[in-house]
Amino acid sequence: MTSASTSPKNVHISTHPCVRAKLSQLRSKSCDGRTTKRLIHEIANIVCCDALAASLSTQTSGKDETPLGYSYDVETIAPAHISVVPILRSGLGMVDALSDLLPETVPVHHLGLFREPTTLSPVEYYNNLPYHSSPPTSTPDPHLAIILDPIIATGGTCAAAIQTLREWGVSRVVVISVLGTTEGVKRASEEWEEVEVWVGGVDSKLNAKGMIVPGVGDVGDRLFGTKGK
């Protein structure tokens, strides 16, 4: 597994003991669909917590009172404009882990991308970003987009998603993943200077089909109980 010390500065590999242990459990062929879903959620929750701590700040937004009548400053997160963007379909398994951490409800937009089997190049088949034909230039505040994608293998899908969000007009992109490869996370991290990649673990190899070795198999199939083509 690649160490954090040899990664690009904008790539953050978790060293949390619980993440490492849960990732080891997730790798097992004996891990059933229900357990896979739980482990993806739990790993994502820890990685998301670290990513949000580094990516957000707080600001005072007025006053309120406690039940005993004492006044206090209300703190909210900044930036206020955040969009969560899971990559279909496996990214859906990480949405609750992130949403549970955020103090307010934020919009969840979906991007559908698959890898063409021969070239492994990303192909977009779904995009529900509002006004995705033109960037939301009417939004004056900084806009943070958080990509949720459990696996970064070649990095092509993640890079394509980053480029789509950049064209949409976001100010920054944070990528949160469960497992990546050295090559994949590097490619994603180099797609734009306003990108930070947070990942539970990194393996060094890909096989001929673009699957991570040793990896965790096809997360989408494991989450939804389907068999790959």
The proportion of residues forming helix, as a percent range, comes to 25-40%
Unreliable parts? none
The SS-based structural class is alpha/beta
Strand content: 25-35%
Q: What is the N-to-C succession of helices and strands?
A: EHHEEEHEEEEHEHEEEH
Average predicted local confidence, pLDDT: 91
Question: Distance between the terminal alpha carbons, to the nearest Å?
Answer: 28 Å
Task: Using the alpha-carbon principal axes, give the shape.
Answer: globular
Rg over alpha carbons: 18 Å
How many β-strand runs? Answer: 12
**How many helices in DSSP terms?**
6
Largest sheet: 8 strands, mixed
What does this structure look like?
This protein is of the alpha/beta class and 229 residues long. 29% of the residues lie in helices and 31% in strands. The chain has 6 helices and 12 strands. It has helices spanning 17-27, 33-55, 95-99, 156-168, 182-189, 219-224, and strands spanning 11-13, 57-65, 71-78, 81-88, 111-115, 122-127, 143-148, 151-152, 172-181, 195-203, 205-206, 212-213. Strands 1, 4, 5, 6, 7, 8, 9 and 10 form an 8-stranded mixed sheet that branches. The model has no long low-confidence stretch (mean pLDDT 91).
